[in-house]
Amino acid sequence: MTAAKVKDPEPAPNMQSRVSARRWTSADLGLLPVGADTTIPPFARDNSARIDGFDLWDMWPVEHPDGQLPRFDGASLWMVLAAPAGADPDARHAIARIHLLSGKNGAWTVHGPVFPDGFTPGSREWSGSAVLELQSNTLTVFFTAAGRRAFSGPSFEQRLFQAHCQFAHADGAFILSGWTDLAESIVADEQDYRRANQTEGRAGEILGFRDPAWFRDPATGQAYLFFTGSSARSTAQWTGVIGVAALDAAEAWHLLPPVIDASGLNNELERPHMRWVDGHYYLFWSTQAKVFAPSTSPAPSGLYGAVAPSPLGPFTLLNGSGLVAATPAEAPAQEYSWWVMDDLSVIGFADYPGLADPAVLADAAQRRAHFAGYPAPFFHIALDGASSKVVR
After folding, report:
1. Is the omega angle on the peptide bond into residue 121 within 30 degrees of 0, that is, cis?
2. CA 59, CA 338: separation in Å to the nearest integer?
3. Which domains does the chain have, with CATH numbers?
């Protein structure tokens, strides 16, 4: 990837020794802060915000290599998981495709699938990140290929891929053309990371090797991919880790050990991504209450995070517990899958806003009746070293 080129990247063996994994344990959850400073503002479901005929969920911005957000005639450009709205919104994960999305003046427009039909190797596409190099008009998309195109049975296999295309914008239209260089970015090594190749399972209990998120260190120029993984070193049922890979001079990715290890505590540290703020490296991830081990202290669904003096650690959990922003107690499934922007605004997708008792969601008809499926309102956070708070 041209945009990823760095000066004198550090050899991968040297970087291995620099990784300092932070264990996230039940003891940390005993420090959970409770209050307005760590609670996302509640909002009501707005049916007018839905895109007709579609469910939308995980979304991420198209960014410059340095993490800044480009604008196109005032519009921001995004990618989002989308699926035709069926009888059961939970079925959307099995038919997900990445779509292009733009936002302007509070309104969202879907522009169609990102990839041509038949281009990606999975049976569906899951989350990732996108980097736009305007000097060459090149867009690089990192994504999760879920399942395999030629495999007809059920599959929860997850592989990390990347591809390039030419990018153009004119008269409100975004044109992606000349897709090339489809390649598997990294492969689980079965030493630090388990292969996510199950053929059966259910949400919250499957292995993970997904959600690649690009980050370039402004201090060194070194490029990294952070991702959701499952520990190959743990025998626990809950094996969630945040993994990382580094780019070398030949533009090849090299796996490094995990930077956050929640083995025994949590099974899914989803959509990890990094921001550099005031000389600190902030790593954020999303998780749900239901994927914490039952024996641990209760913890809410929400945005969590940690801070370090380098992209590889050592990490300190924000606010002592890692919690940055929880869903409101009166609407615990209000939204999910957050992304922190370079200006510290935060967006997720509206899941089940206004629903006090998620127990009714055991029924598919009730899930459809309550599911929102559109971008949630932005909120903002403030950061001060190892402390954070929701500011509006």
Report:
1. no
2. 8
3. 18-381 (2.115.10.20)
Distance CA 51, CA 378 (A): 18
Is the pLDDT at 204 greater than 80? The verdict is no
What gap in Å lies between CA 194 and CA 178, rounded to an integer? 34
Instruction: Say what the pLDDT of residue 8 is.
Output: 54
- Concatenating the DSSP letter of every residue in 73-104 gives TTBEEEEEEEEE--S-GGGGGGG-EEEEEEEE
Q: How would DSSP label each residue in 139-201?
A: EEEEEEEES-TT--S----EEEEEEEEEEEEETTEEEEEEEEEEEEEE---SSSB-----SS-
Q: Both tokens of residue 287?
A: 């998780």
**Angle, vertex CA 141, rays to CA 373 and CA 95, nearest 5:** 40
Partners of 390 in beta bridges: 381
Using DSSP's 3-state secondary structure scheme, residue 71 falls into: coil
For range 84-88, the mean pLDDT: 97
Q: CA-based angle 347:256:96, to the nearest 5? A: 40
